[in-house]
Amino acid sequence: MTLNHSFCRALLALALWIVMPAANAYLLSTHANNDPRPSPITSPGNLLVVSGTATATDNGVPNQYPGKVLCPGATVPCQFGPVASPIIIDSGGYRFVSAMNCTSFVSFYCASHNDTSVTVNTNMTWDQAISAWRARYGNSVSRYNAYTYGGGGVTQRMCTSWATYAGNRASNSYFLPGADSCGPPPIPPNQCNVSGGSVTLDHGTLKVGEITGKKVEVSRQVTCTRDASVTYTVASGNPVDLGNGLRSTIAVNGFNAGQVLRLPGGTSNLKIASTLTDQGAVAGPFSKTIVLIQNLL
């Protein structure tokens, strides 16, 4: 009886040891959202930024990043945390590095005034570095200005990583293997902005019997982020009833309002025209205020 009792206790102890969670068992990951917009970093001025998250999950598998912390170059201590690390197009794989939530292109500022990193040194293991990060931030952090990358066709691959760093260049950084994520760069939504304010299409004085086909045209500039398919529609319908037996057909760049036209990327002319039709016109003044609605397809 005594032997059986001791044997059962030994089995119980062994079973408890097997299911105990391992300490310092972390899996690092990053996630960038598809919500591009101008970066708060104003120099250079072609940078974009997206919101995102960085996570250090305790998954029960210890020592996934073996060895000691590597600080770039001879810079010890250094910063450790999530970064944007986009690959620049036509650069042989060059990457610039921007700390998560960095809002200044001055690398010293982001390395020393950063709210998403911790200071580490080369005497620490990676698990100890991650533990220090979790002690400050918890399991994950999310930021609105999370990851910065180059707009205007500059970025070939949008990458986010966990890294040690001492500046904003890849040569001043060490990317922790297996703790990064890459994909196509998020593309900002297209925009076409018309300048010049409201448009007045003034037909002047007309003679009864000489109205149909009379046309006036006004130009405005339109600037699109990139090539766009656009429709311009009249809120009250097209043709427009002007009263006194007159109708006006509104056209943009030669296309009647409601038809699809192509606008190039950059700035171009937008020609807005009114062409009259006599529907039994009688003498007297006429006018109409309309709303021209722009729709990007």
Give the topology, please:
Elements: H1 2-19, E1 26-32, E2 37-38, E3 47-58, E4 78-84, E5 87-88, E6 98-99, H2 107-112, E7 118-120, H3 126-137, E8 140-150, E9 155-165, E10 173-183, E11 192-194, E12 215-224, E13 228-234, E14 240-243, E15 246-252, E16 255-256, E17 260-263, E18 266-278, E19 292-296
Antiparallel strand pairs: 1-3, 2-3, 3-8, 4-6, 4-7, 4-9, 5-9, 9-10, 11-12, 12-18, 13-17, 13-19, 14-15, 15-16, 15-18
Features:
3 helices, 6-stranded antiparallel sheet, mainly beta, single chain, 297 residues
Would you write up a description of this structure?
The chain is mainly beta and 297 residues long. It has helices at 2-19, 107-112, 126-137, and strands spanning 26-32, 37-38, 47-58, 78-84, 87-88, 98-99, 118-120, 140-150, 155-165, 173-183, 192-194, 215-224, 228-234, 240-243, 246-252, 255-256, 260-263, 266-278, 292-296. Strands 4, 5, 6, 7, 9 and 10 form a 6-stranded antiparallel sheet that branches. Strands 11, 12, 14, 15, 16 and 18 form a 6-stranded antiparallel sheet that branches. The longest helix has 18 residues, at 2-19. The protein is rod-shaped, with a radius of gyration of 32 Å.
